[in-house]
Fold this protein.
Amino acid sequence: MSEPDHHAREARILDGFWKAVAEHGWRGATMARIAQAAHVTLAELRGHAACPEALLALSVKAVDRAVLAGTVPSEGESPRDRLFDLLMRRLDQLQPHRAGVIRFLKELPYDPPLAFWVGTLNDRAMAWMLEAAGLGSRGLIGQLRRRGLMGVWVYTLNAWAKDESPDMAATMAALDRALGRADQIARSFDPEARRKAAEAEAPASTGEETPPGEAQGAPS
């Protein structure tokens, strides 16, 4: 099977996967039901994944791939702006599977082991988003960035699940707020950023002494 055919088959299987989750819930999305929703045989489904968990991981990977393929950094664009664009593109990829994703999110808190595993999937996904935004994702600083961006993603995902507007205006506003807050927190831990902020807020000095008679509040 050629690569385009492989990806087309994969997309159909993932569509069937999310349809099965939307209709039957996570626990009810058996491989037989997924194959039926995707209009493939069980043998064909087995060629792509061994279990629903593998299909979930495949879905996250497919979203990563689609977002990264369309990433074209613009000169002068800030990392925050790039992250905004990247995370909104992730949501665009989830939009066709909205019903299944929302049902999955509602059920996730009741399955702690699954929630923990999904967290590891999202941690890797956020690492890719940071790399695409021109920010490192490794080491202690990278780990903190991944955790911070994970919080932004979860907050935005919850806003998206409640947003019924066609233009996702409420979702974009939530993402902008979350990124702004994350940026403030990141700067508070960066000595260089604090120094620059203090210099920017300090009153400008001309280096000339003010004549005594012209001092503010001096009697004329």
The CA atoms of residues 123 and 146 lie 6 Å apart. Confidence is low (pLDDT under 50) at residues 205-220.
